[in-house]
């Protein structure tokens, strides 16, 4: 904690420290000292404070000091302290921060797409999809976000090598993110039920997507000599799912669809949960595992 005394000499932080003492008493002054060190730890762990919410700080402080920091005036103070910390430490981002997982490398530019209402990029979509797949590796196969566009433009020959090391017909569930223009949606394939389902948080239906996937499955079954999978497929289904009320959360919805489908969980989230879920996904990417 000693190294964090440098922050106290910022006019903003000295003011906040005095105000903190007036509002909360001497115990809160000790909490303030701990607070700065805690934010330092978050910054090193996540590369930024993007996934950190004031409720996280309140919970941490309550655990350390055995006091109720959830009172409104104390929560407001925590929010002010976070803002002061960010001002005193510049952009509050660690230069050169990286997350490495298998072949994936996420930079702060990638992780920052999870902030606010930014559009998620392919790097975030693909690494998170792999985390979903690796949480149930025997049951789920997640296709790279570039798969569908390659299939759509090049046909089966353009993607036939993408599954050379995996037998998709031995899986229970296939997850295929669809990125068309500036919108993300999802096609899922239930291998056992032989059904193809389309998920879109804008509640539109692009019938070409499931049809392309169906043709791909037939071609793959022929090449892999899985002729039992040439027949028995049911019609295409469109699921009525939670609806986004902006133009930026489609990627976040798709990743949550993937997670819930893979883990057999209900879609118990909506638009209002997206800020919290974006922060959670940021943390999951940094930990390189799903937080269940």
From TrEMBL:
One of its GO terms (cellular component) is nucleolus. Keywords: Hydrolase, Nucleus, Protease, Thiol protease, Ubl conjugation pathway. GO terms for biological process: protein desumoylation; proteolysis. GO terms for molecular function: deSUMOylase activity. It comes from the Eukaryota. InterPro entries: Papain-like_cys_pep_sf, Peptidase_C48_C, SENP3_5_cons_dom. Pfam families: Peptidase_C48, SENP3_5_N. Residues 104-261 form the Ubiquitin-like protease family profile domain. It is found in: Nucleus, Nucleolus. Coiled coil: none annotated. Belongs to the peptidase C48 family. PANTHER family: SENTRIN-SPECIFIC PROTEASE 3, SENTRIN/SUMO-SPECIFIC PROTEASE. This is SUMO specific peptidase 3b. It comes from Cyprinus carpio (Common carp).
């Amino acid at each position: 904690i000693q190294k964090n005394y440098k922050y106290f000499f910022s006019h903003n932080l000295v003011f906040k420290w005095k105000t903190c003492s007036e509002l909360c008493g001497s115990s809160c002054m000790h909490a303030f000292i701990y607070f700065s060190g805690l934010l330092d730890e978050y910054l090193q762990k996540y590369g930024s404070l993007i996934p950190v919410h004031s409720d996280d700080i309140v919970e941490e402080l309550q655990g350390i000091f055995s006091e109720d920091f959830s009172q409104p005036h104390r929560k407001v103070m925590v929010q002010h302290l976070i803002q002061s910390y960010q001002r005193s430490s510049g952009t509050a981002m660690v230069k050169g921060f990286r997350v490495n997982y298998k072949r994936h490398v996420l930079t702060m530019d990638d992780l920052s797409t999870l902030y606010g209402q930014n559009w998620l990029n392919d790097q975030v979509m693909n690494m998170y999809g792999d985390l979903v797949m690796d949480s149930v590796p025997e049951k789920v196969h997640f296709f790279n976000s570039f798969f569908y566009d390659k299939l759509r433009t090049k046909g089966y020959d353009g993607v036939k090598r993408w599954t050379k090391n995996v037998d998709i017909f031995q899986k229970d569930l296939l997850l295929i993110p669809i990125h068309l223009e500036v919108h993300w949606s999802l096609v899922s394939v239930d291998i056992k039920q032989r059904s193809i389902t389309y998920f879109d948080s804008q509640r539109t239906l692009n019938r070409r997507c499931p049809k392309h996937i169906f043709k791909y499955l037939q071609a793959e079954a022929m090449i892999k000599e899985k002729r039992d999978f040439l027949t028995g497929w049911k019609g295409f289904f469109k699921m009525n799912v939670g609806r986004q009320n902006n133009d930026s959360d489609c990627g976040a919805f798709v990743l949550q669809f993937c997670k819930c489908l893979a883990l057999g969980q209900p879609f118990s989230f909506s638009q209002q949960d997206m800020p919290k879920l974006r922060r959670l996904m940021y943390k999951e990417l940094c930990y390189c595992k799903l937080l269940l």
